[in-house]
Specification:
The chain is an alpha+beta fold. Helices cover about 15% and strands about 40% of the residues. It has two domains: about 150 residues, no CATH class; about 110 residues, no CATH class. The protein is globular, with a radius of gyration of 21 Å. This is Lipoprotein.
Length: about 280
């Protein structure tokens, strides 16, 4: 028997601590595992999310400060946003928090697990109901009895909503735009088939490979400059800027990063590089 906590409201969470449910599995296609949540969105500016995580830590009366977002899985429905966030503290420790924003009540709920498990790290488990139109069957729990669950709530402000919405871009939309720029015609279906990661002391790079409905593959690159001096198409990026780079053309046209020079270039001379820097200025 497992104690499960519904995450749609703090009252439901606390009430459910006293109840038990069998480890049932649903056939509802709208229910997915929290830890298998995959994101169709790209985090291009992490300041809003970093502030949100810090707010929940402050609500939990912790003195720790969030220094960096390491990884985020994100899903947005009509009524809610779901985040599974791995973040680094200023002391170097990496932690995890699940956050659910209720866009109807403008309440944010955070769930984190702390403690030491015998055979595995203390982590969050659960399922997310992606369709809230007929109620919310989401639940979460910690991975072992030695884990202690911490639940926090915070109000969602209008400015926070605006900052968060600017921080995410739809990956499929970016791939559709890249396909059109590369091949000159739209594709009625796009599938992102692979994501390659590269990170050093200068840059954090994600290279997305996608396939159009005609079976042809292409790529685009998302570069976050960690220092000044990174350039694309001869234009220098400011530190902490996130830039979307797309090399388009009829040759074997791909994006390539040179660590020695800090430059991003296209792989052949017939390529045309399209550079789009995300607006991360304070609004």
């Amino acid at each position: 028997m497992e104690n499960r906590i519904l995450i749609y409201s703090i009252a439901a969470m606390l009430a459910c601590l006293a109840c038990s449910k069998e480890g049932d599995q649903t056939d509802d296609g709208n229910i997915i595992s929290l830890n298998e949540l995959s994101s169709n969105f790209l985090l291009v500016d992490d300041r809003g999310l970093l502030n949100k995580v810090q707010t929940h830590l402050d609500q939990d009366k912790l003195s720790a400060k969030v220094s960096q977002i390491e990884e985020v899985k994100f899903y947005e429905s009509a009524d809610a946003r779901f985040y599974l966030v791995s973040y680094k503290l200023d002391d170097g420790d990496t932690k995890e928090i699940a956050i659910r924003d209720n866009l109807v009540t403008n309440q944010s709920t955070g769930i984190s697990c702390r403690g030491q498990c015998t055979s595995d790290r203390c982590r969050i488990e659960g399922e997310i109901d992606l369709d809230l139109s007929d109620g919310d069957d989401s639940w979460s729990q910690c991975s072992c009895t030695a884990c202690e669950m911490h639940v926090t709530t915070a109000a969602i402000t209008e400015s926070e909503n605006e900052t968060l919405s600017k921080g995410f871009r739809n990956i499929e939309d970016l791939a559709k735009k890249s396909f059109l720029n590369t091949f000159g015609t739209p594709s009625d279906k796009i599938a992102v088939t692979k994501v390659d990661y590269f990170k050093d002391e200068k840059v954090d790079i994600q290279t997305f490979t996608y396939e159009g409905s005609n079976g042809i593959e292409s790529t685009f690159m998302v570069v976050r400059a960690l220092v000044d001096g990174i350039s694309a198409n001869g234009v220098e990026m400011a530190a902490m800027d996130t830039t979307i780079i797309d090399c388009t053309g009829s040759c074997d046209c791909r994006e390539r990063y040179y660590p020695g020079t800090g430059a991003v270039e296209c792989t052949c001379s017939d390529c045309k590089m399209i550079v789009e820097t995300e607006d991360t200025e304070e609004g």
